[in-house]
Write a structure and sequence with these properties.
By secondary structure, this protein is an alpha/beta fold. It has eleven helices and nine strands. The strands form two sheets. Strands 1-4-3-2-5-6 form a six-stranded parallel β-sheet, sandwiched between helices. The protein has a three-stranded antiparallel β-sheet with strand order 7-8-9, covered by helices on one side. Bound molecules: pantoate.
């Protein structure tokens, strides 16, 4: 990455953005680093929309509800910069915790409603509060016209969309499909912590979601959910939750509707993985 393309302070980033013509639109790809093909796909999509793409790299401590998870989160800045360079010309914002959360930082007050109380919200208390606050702070600093998020974090996407609607923010949220390895495993920074054997074992997640799609038949969502749990439990992972939910409200489905999703969170050894898929 050429000198000057990585900004670590709000002031330097803002002065770089101000130097662009006023008609230039900005797209933001927020990341926590440890970049993989999923992130690079977001960056490529952002570059199709506009020339001015900001990629933030910041491991946000406030969204981790486990100290160990925060400490073990992979940090690979040098490699991230190389990968970004291979994709195109982007502006990298890699701030410190102090820069993101100065002493006068004020949390936003927002009622995220029921979408934030289930699944990730239930098992990771405080997680979404941390996510919306950091994303809102990025929006304040960068004032992007667009922000791109992967559907792998399906609930996060819904929560951010809700924040944008509730707070009437002018940014357009662009959801992007989950990128998978050839094996079907969803790309995730956390995959870096898996052994080859664990990567194979983790395939039970995508296999269960495919199994659910293939066996829907005349089953109710609850019957299908129970069948999928039985299938999942034949594998080696430890299930945290598996649910079939309304893709808009994220509440468990009792009856089928046109937009339903199977969502899974599970531990593969020490590593927590999540994934989701449409149910057709
Ligand atoms: O999805 C992530 O990597 C993070 O939750 C995000 C959106 C960058 C906020 O820290």
């Amino acid at each position: 990455m050429k000198d000057g393309a990585v900004f670590t302070t709000v002031e330097s980033l803002q002065s770089r953005l101000k130097s662009s013509s006023s008609s230039t639109e900005t797209a933001l790809v927020p990341t926590m680093g440890a970049l993989h093909d999923g992130h690079l796909d977001l960056v490529r999509k952002a570059l199709e929309i506009t020339d001015q793409v900001v990629v933030s790299i910041f491991v946000n401590p406030t969204q981790f509800n486990s100290k160990e998870d925060l400490e073990n989160y992979p940090r690979t800045l040098e490699n991230d910069l190389k990968l970004l360079e291979s994709v195109g010309k982007v502006i990298v914002f890699a701030p410190t915790v102090e820069e993101m959360y100065p002493p006068d930082f004020e949390k936003i007050k927002i009622d995220l409603g029921d979408i934030a109380n289930v699944m990730e919200g239930k098992f990771r208390p405080g997680h979404f509060e941390g996510v919306v606050n950091v994303v809102h702070r990025f929006f304040q600093i960068i004032s992007p016209n667009y922000a791109l998020f992967g559907e792998k974090d399906f609930q996060q996407l819904a929560v951010i969309q809700r924040m944008v609607e509730e707070m009437r923010l002018s940014v357009q949220i662009i959801p992007c499909q989950t990128i998978r390895e050839v094996s079907g495993l969803a790309r995730s920074s956390r995959n870096q912590r898996l052994t080859e054997l664990q990567k194979e074992q983790a395939l039970v997640i995508v296999e269960t979601m495919n199994y659910a799609n293939q066996n829907k038949g005349e089953l109710t969502p609850i019957e299908l959910k129970n069948l999928a749990i039985d299938y999942f439990n034949q594998g080696e992972l430890e299930l945290e939750y598996l649910d079939i939910v309304d893709a808009k409200t994220l509440q468990s489905l009792n009856e089928w509707n046109s937009d339903s999703r199977i969502c899974i969170a599970a531990y593969c050894g020490e590593v927590r993985l999540i994934d989701n898929m449409e149910i057709n």
